[in-house]
Design a protein that fits this description.
By secondary structure, this protein is an all-beta fold. It is 3% helix and 44% strand. It is built from 1 helix and 18 strands.
Length: 229
């Protein structure tokens, strides 16, 4: 019998929504599963799976497979989503499977996401870039709601946030708002000069959020912001 060894691998991805909010957040995980099949006419030995995705944690193997045998439980991987992944809107990567015959012939295949015939990367779309506005700011020092929090704004760094008082005076304006070092905490950063230690007075303010998505399409959100002490 002429040895014609070959191997195939299918890679699938499952997003684990650990906080059950329906969106992808940095630190949540993806589980990758691998289905490996001996598609040749001789047994294969010392089968391993490699995945070049930075930060991925592989587990399982090596294994052996007889002719036409399939294994879909031995290999798996875990990956923690980064903010950059969310900003990109998807994660695309491809694994490789390797094995050898008893006579030392080596075989390899790149993963597909559907069937054994293709070699297409596995792409998982991430719906984490959803803007949600929390329009209450409390600057009473209790560490609760001490900044104007805009969920998802980190996905759109090309942004501008403006806040106006009831008389239409711009009291805050910053580009690249990110909820951390660039955030509204009840302190004036606009045309009105107010002693920083006192902050802006309590009351109702008006915000305008402008940002561009990854296709440079402009978007705008506007509404009322409530500041209390």
């Amino acid at each position: 019998i002429v040895e014609v060894p070959s191997i195939a691998i299918i890679k699938t991805a499952v997003f684990n929504d650990e906080n059950s909010n329906g969106n992808a957040d940095a630190g949540e995980t993806i589980t990758y599963n691998f289905k490996v099949t001996n598609t040749g006419n001789v047994p294969l030995y010392n089968i391993t799976v490699l995945d070049p995705l930075a930060g991925i944690i592989m587990s399982g193997g090596p294994i052996d497979l007889n002719v036409n045998d399939t294994d879909e439980v031995s290999f798996s991987a875990q990956y923690s989503i980064t903010q950059n992944d969310i900003n990109n809107g998807s994660i695309s990567n491809q694994a490789s499977v390797m094995g050898s015959t008893l006579s030392g012939i080596k075989v390899e295949d790149k993963s597909d996401n559907i069937n054994n015939l293709g070699d297409n990367p596995t792409v998982l779309l991430l719906s984490g870039c959803v803007i949600k506005i929390f329009n209450a700011v409390s600057i009473n020092g209790d560490s609760m709601n001490e900044r104007f929090y805009i969920q998802g704004i980190e996905c759109y760094p090309d942004n501008t946030v403006q806040i106006y008082n009831r008389w239409g005076v711009l009291v805050f304006e910053r580009d690249h708002y990110n909820n951390t070092d660039v955030a509204f905490r009840g302190i004036s950063e606009g045309r009105v000069t107010i002693k920083e230690s006192k902050g802006l007075p309590e009351g109702t303010y008006y915000y305008i959020i402008k940002y561009k998505d990854h296709q440079s399409t402009p978007h705008q959100e506007a509404g009322y912001l409530y500041l209390t002490k």
